[in-house]
């Protein structure tokens, strides 16, 4: 028995704009599914539309995927594959599965209106199939160039078992023969995509449910090309936090997340689970998400994308990030000990700089008139104690004994004098980083303020 082909997925954005959160989710699903099956994840740039495709968006797509940690195993561009499409097109014209049609947009529009007026579905009537060779010759002589339609086979229903949606069934007689090529020779999305899926050996087409009816049409294209169709997974769409299909989602992308200080891994952790029956968890690495990823876990209801949830998840991921994953984003000189001390207090990595400032100084401490004597005592004590092991507990222990203070009156004046703030990282971790010399100076200065 031959083993089943290794999994191949593809993410196929059109470079006509920036990736938004819905595209990012599709890219991620493709990447996770391929990795889970030890397969390949391909990037296909759908740039057949020369007028709307822009190189800067191709660059942005690559950069966004890199930021998210999604690395395609290969990249292909549709604009470099026109010869391939032409060959397949010619073959389908030769077998009569693609035919020329001559109606203008206005004529088609009128036909649709008439059908709708009669209460009929607006399906293309295939008038072009009834043309004789002589008719076509006359149209050509009049300078009318045809566009091209794929002739659907009406004989049997189109069926597939969708990995998310389960069994699907479409009646091809209720669908118009799709236009696959315009009169100027340019390609529409539908056929080149199916050709590429065959040529690239794609085993799993993973995309949003807005493509479900395209799948029905493309399944017949695979059949017409004599190719085994891939499996399909159509995830339900995302909605905004307000529960509706939101305009805002269409503009939320990597640039926005980066500006907000969101960790890429938070985007990954959220979008890998959103819409599934599994809880969203702050996984700081990809492995558990790959392992648990399964289209069978996805529901059919739209999933709600909430920026607040993303921000919270990101903070929880920041709390777990080891120093080597953030080192290049920290102020010069900040080391692992400093990172570990301040990490639990951050919602964003960039805030580490604020705590680095607190450690390094100078700091601005609030006036502490009522605690003057206590702070002088603390400064003396800090100069004296064994600083090696755990200076904060040694210092506060000694001060407690000497002054009888405990709780807030003991700790708060010290924290304020040493950091300038009422709240912050665990002082037991922070004080050794501030160091004896600076600590003594800060306590004295606070006492004199
Ligand atoms: N370029 C198409 C899109 O962005 C690709 C759809 C597909 O995955 O086949 O919608």
TrEMBL record:
This is Glutamate--tRNA ligase. Keywords: Aminoacyl-tRNA synthetase, ATP-binding, Cytoplasm, Ligase, Nucleotide-binding, Protein biosynthesis. It catalyses: tRNA(Glu) + L-glutamate + ATP = L-glutamyl-tRNA(Glu) + AMP + diphosphate. It comes from Sphingomonas rubra. The keyword Cytoplasm applies. A motif ('KMSKS' region) lies at residues 244-248. Residues 8-310 form the Glutamyl/glutaminyl-tRNA synthetase class Ib catalytic domain. Signal peptide: none annotated. A motif ('HIGH' region) lies at residues 13-23. The gene is gltX. The lineage of its organism: Bacteria, Pseudomonadati, Pseudomonadota, Alphaproteobacteria, Sphingomonadales. Catalyzes the attachment of glutamate to tRNA(Glu) in a two-step reaction: glutamate is first activated by ATP to form Glu-AMP and then transferred to the acceptor end of tRNA(Glu).
